[in-house]
Specification:
alpha/beta, 13 strands, Aspartate Aminotransferase, domain 1, Aspartate Aminotransferase, domain 2
Length: about 400
């Protein structure tokens, strides 16, 4: 068996994306022990950096070791007790995921839905909050299955008025779209590295408000008799040990109580992702994603392709392109295969009602740059022509170039 040698790829799907080379270099740094002063200092740096990324003053801002779904599960299993009412606004696949996880926690889950390609008006969410009276409102900001970005600022005010804990999954949106944890009244937000943050999947940044931390700590319990006597249970124990955020907060906090062995290389990756984002400036990163996302949007339209959903509420970093009718699902897969085999470019399909109907093309993280956009559009044009789909010659690249020319100072 030979040394692993992945083929070169330009990952222009909805995530994961091509990792920034600087992040890969950080991951190759030597390991240290989990309580080495360098390790604990690095953990402190990570907490500071992600406070900036999430735009929060929350003390409890750290990493959950695992993919972005680990962060989601940690948040929900630590907040929700059996019988709690949870409200989930569903506008794509990942709202259904939040629903499933909440149900596994034993919650009484209520959902409201809009058609895929739309988002919720705050009035609809407030009406549901008044009717359901949930303990937790769990919402996705950017759902890559539909590419829609749910406005959050009014939802936080609604949750505060009705004393509802507000959880948000920002996996697909953080770093590439505006996100204001404190200003928008979020109680817990989680994300992943593999989208706009430009890293690999495997670490889940999380931020927890003091109010949510109090709820979680009220459920703390003794781990196998090891923790201090003052930590005796005062509420129903959290069902998971690994995802018990009360324990994880102790691990990242000043007491450094042992919980698990930190994923050191992923810690380095998460630090470098956040360091690069902070160096660029959060607002500048959002503007970069907006620019290259608009270039991709207008580029596919310049090829005569239609775009799915309410474009005014689309995430900056991914676009859903309707597969030409003459191709059908099989032809759509053939175009994707051509892009991968001939150009080393990966784009995505979608799920549920959109499966076989759209391609999802991402411009995020390290790939939110001009050459990646223009290369993808040129390759897509060639693949479409090979599939006998008539498209304007140079239409995609020309439309994208116009966006870049307009953006020049």
């Amino acid at each position: 068996m030979d040394e692993i040698a992945p083929p070169p790829r330009l990952l222009m799907g909805p995530g994961p994306i091509s990792v920034d080379p600087r992040v890969l270099r950080a991951m190759a740094a030597p390991l240290v022990g989990q309580f080495d002063p360098f390790m604990t200092a690095t953990m402190n740096e990570v907490m500071d950096l992600y406070r900036e990324v999430f735009d929060t003053d929350n003390e409890q801002t750290f990493l959950v070791d695992g993919t972005s779904r680990a962060g989601i599960e940690a948040a929900l299993v630590s907040l929700i007790e059996p019988g709690d009412r949870v409200l989930v606004p569903v506008f794509g696949r990942f709202g259904h995921l939040l629903t499933e996880i909440a149900q596994r926690c034993g919650a009484e889950v209520h959902t409201i839905e809009v058609p895929w390609g739309e988002v919720f008006a705050p009035e609809a969410i407030e009406a549901a909050v008044r009717e359901v009276r949930p303990k937790v409102l769990a919402c996705v900001q950017g759902d890559t299955s539909t590419t829609m970005c749910q406005p959050l600022e009014d939802i936080g005010a609604i949750c505060r008025e009705h004393d509802v804990l507000f959880y948000c999954d920002a996996t697909a949106s953080l770093g590439g779209n505006e996100f204001r944890s404190d200003a928008w009244g979020l109680d817990i937000a989680t994300a992943g590295l593999q989208k706009c943050l430009g890293g690999p999947s495997g670490s889940a940044p999380i931020t927890i408000s003091p109010k949510a931390a109090d709820v979680i700590n009220a459920r703390r319990h003794v781990e196998a008799g090891i923790r201090e006597a003052s930590d005796e249970a005062v509420g129903r124990p959290i069902a998971s040990n690994y995802f018990d955020l009360a324990m994880v907060m102790d691990y990242w906090g000043p007491r450094r109580l042992n919980h698990h062995t930190e994923a050191t290389s992923m810690l380095y990756a998460a630090r470098e992702c956040a360091r690069l984002l902070a160096a660029e400036g959060i607002d500048a990163s959002v503007a970069r994603h907006a620019l290259h996302g608009r270039a991709m949007l207008e580029g596919v339209q310049g090829l005569g392709l239609s775009v799915f959903g309410d474009v005014t509420h689309k995430m900056h970093n991914v676009v859903a392109v309707e597969i030409p009718e003459k191709l059908g699902p099989a032809g759509g897969d053939a175009v994707r295969a051509s892009l991968l085999d001939d150009f080393g470019i990966e784009i995505g399909t979608s799920f549920g009602p959109l499966h076989g109907k759209v391609w999802r093309i991402g411009t995020m993280g390290y790939n939110a740059r001009k050459d990646a956009v223009l290369t993808t559009l040129a390759a897509l044009e060639h693949a479409l022509r090979t599939a006998d789909v008539g498209v304007p010659a140079g239409g995609g690249v020309t439309a994208a170039q116009a966006v870049y020319s307009e953006a020049r100072p």
